[in-house]
Amino acid sequence: MVVFASVGVTRLYPNGSDAPSSKGAGNCMIVFTMFYIFFFATTWAPVAYIVVAESFPQKVKTKAMAISTAFNWFWQFLIGFFTPFHYRRNQLLLWLRVCRVFSGNVPVCFLLFA
Prior knowledge:
By secondary structure, the chain is an all-alpha fold. The chain has five helices and no strands. The two termini are about 30 Å apart.
């Protein structure tokens, strides 16, 4: 992601934001995004399912796995669906909204897992 951010900031618009973007820089960003997705999907992504599988007793494990997987997919869908609308509406305060969501979830996670 460091390469992605560096190329995006320094090389994507070499002549200013009014000029056309660099095709090579855009392709480089796409390739490194694909690398990131590949390596995340093959290493850290399954960890959520392992943690959930090991958190519940055998008696309720199947129902708990089903519910946790459904909520995982549901929240991923909501984040992917609503992020562009929030970004277009007010680009400067997007970081504040994201910070509120994450900081609001900290007490919930603490209560559930502590």
